[in-house]
Amino acid sequence: MADIVKTIEALKKGEFVTPKRLAEVLECQKEQQLEYLFTTADQVRKNHHGKVVKIRAIIEFSNHCRCSCWYCGMYAGQKGLQRYRMKAEELVSACQQVWQAGYQTVVLQSGEDLYYTKEMIGEIVKQVKTTTGLAITLSLGERPFEDYAYWKLQGADRYLIKHETCNEPMYNRYHPHSSFQERIRCQNDLRLLGYELGSGFMVGLPGQTNEMLAEDILFLKRQRVSMAGIGPYICHPNTRLRGSTDGSAELTLKALALARLALPRANLPSTTALNVKGGMRNALHLGANVIMQKATPFQYRNLYDIYPGRESAEISLKTQLNHLKEQLCGMGFTGV
What pLDDT does 278 receive? Predict the structure, then answer.
């Protein structure tokens, strides 16, 4: 108990902690020690974020992708997926509907689809910004510095590009179209340009160890991220990793709690993957302070098939938002 508590307290105070010590916390199964971890993480969240849970609307506007990620159901070689692209005016209209429903932030996400040029995305961002005032997060993958700079000039506020795993050999194996060094180049460019940088990683990738997970948590701190999405790996049956075991929701919650201690001011979502595993309520009580809510037009939602289990009921955006706020209120939070 004493060693685990010392590690938790050291991380909370911003002191140096080795990956081995963090891995010991991740491996811990003792109820009293885990309760201390989760209670401490929850208190750090309360100290920096109070009762507020930030609600983000996410629009997934294209499932075309140039990438060959081993774990993703939308990888470039996937022949059994119906592909779609939203037109620029359709996407702008969807963002305006998000704003009218009462959301304050929209996340525009797609596969790495180079059909959307620097200029196309820039014009979309500009129109959304001038007609709604929404905070805009982009999640479009790896692009040149010039693209990121142009989008920032047009009004983009944040950029989400997860590192997935900071174990370089594992990253390069699972992402044969790119490299770990290229991914980090993108993150460094975005931070240099003044974006609020979002990163994150998967828990339970085949071959991953707890010490690798510990490295991921410490990597987020070194990258000075403003947001980090941490979710369990969910096996897709039509990928190279088909048949592998899903990541553990319990281990994900431990990693999330440790991330809150390492990143007291960062925005940490209860990720969609964790919600699929039933972890939202727990996540919000041990460090998470953000919820991502799908606002993709219904005809496209099930086609954005990165992993199974993401279906949602067909209700209006306003009703969806109000239901979530009521749910959060019942849990002692205020959704904004």
Answer: 59
Whole-number pLDDT of residue 310: 59
Alpha-carbon distances of 2 from 7, 21, 49, 135, rounded to whole Å: 9, 12, 28, 44
- The ranges of the chain with pLDDT < 70 are 1-2, 273, 275-281, 309-313
Closest CA to 27 of 210, 215, 208, 202: 210
259 touches 268 (CB < 8 A): yes
Q: Is 177 exposed, middle or buried (0-12, 13-18, 19+ CB in 10 A)?
A: middle
Tell me how far CA of residue 61 lies from CA of 41, 80, 160, 296, in angstroms.
35, 19, 15, 7
**DSSP SS3 for 4:** helix
Give the pLDDT of residue 164: 97
Q: What is the DSSP letter of 58?
A: E
Contact of 30 with 78, CB cutoff 8 Å: no
In whole angstroms, what separates CA 170 from the centre of its chain?
20
pLDDT computed for residue 170 by the predictor: 98
Separation of alpha carbons 202 and 234, rounded Å: 9
Sign of CA dihedral 233, 219, 58, 183: negative
Mean pLDDT (the chain) is 95
